[in-house]
Amino acid sequence: MTTPQYDLSHTLPPHTLTRLAREWLAEDTPNFDPAGLCVGSHEVEAKLLCKTPCSVLAGRPFFTAVFTELSCTVEWAHIEGAQLGPDAVAQTAVVRGPARCVLLGERPALNCLARASGIATRCSQLQSIAREAGWHGHVAGTRKTTPGFRLVEKYAMLVGGVSMHRQDLSGMVMLKDNHIWASGSITQAVRNARSVCGFSSKIEVECGSREEGSEAATAGADIVMLDNFKPQELHAAAQLLKEEFPSVLIEASGGVTPDSLPQYLSPHVDIISLGCITQGCPVVDFSLKVQKPVAFPIIFQSQ
């Protein structure tokens, strides 16, 4: 895994990190924290351990934001995007602060880190498959994200080295089968969309055949998505569309998995989007272990 060239945390507004951290903490502890009485507020040190070898670390800003809200500090042993392991257990960070605050933040922070690192790990694996095959297009995510958690998941895609695709409905116009049926035709749907999005937004059209792709491109679509094509059908349709419309981007989507990705790689396909980047993606196993205080032996001196 090649670590990101830039500090991707700079894409996250500080006030957004603070808001999310507060929401996650409020969700997990809406009123009393009875267990906090057991541990009190004496200072402790907890080690963050990664127990899934060869994982990509992602989500540091969210993890840190949770503990910052609780007056704790986090000292990281690895940079964002680093591959952890290959040891079975890798120390990743140290959290210091009042005992009850460390334990208040434990679960929300681990949830973010586990999910983000799992997505980044899968993205890194997909990107490696594409690059090893000599393909130079874009592996991309989708909007099939967890409600309320999209920012974390989209950020993890960046750390893993793939494209986020559109972040939301406002980011780009994507006309799917329901839009087309409701509008009456692909041409009408594109015309309607262009009348409101102007020059500043791209228009993508989901197409079920090469003929639909040709209609979409003729109508002015910037991106033609060939949806649920079998690999050989995809290659043939993409080549014909590129010959007819060289400037139009061709995207393949629908049913692509990490195992089947190599079959969809083609010099005529610019983008391959996969819902499995976020749906059904394994998480990385992290744990936070408070260190036991060192017991010094009592030495009795004779009088």
From TrEMBL:
Residues 119-289 form the Quinolinate phosphoribosyl transferase C-terminal domain. NCBIfam families: nadC. Involved in the catabolism of quinolinic acid (QA). One of its GO terms (cellular component) is cytoplasm. This is Nicotinate-nucleotide pyrophosphorylase [carboxylating]. Belongs to the NadC/ModD family. GO terms for biological process: NAD+ biosynthetic process; quinolinate catabolic process. It holds the Pfam family QRPTase_C. One of its GO terms (molecular function) is nicotinate-nucleotide diphosphorylase (carboxylating) activity. Residues 40-117 form the Quinolinate phosphoribosyl transferase N-terminal domain. It catalyses: nicotinate beta-D-ribonucleotide + CO2 + diphosphate = quinolinate + 5-phospho-alpha-D-ribose 1-diphosphate + 2 H(+). Its EC number is 2.4.2.19.
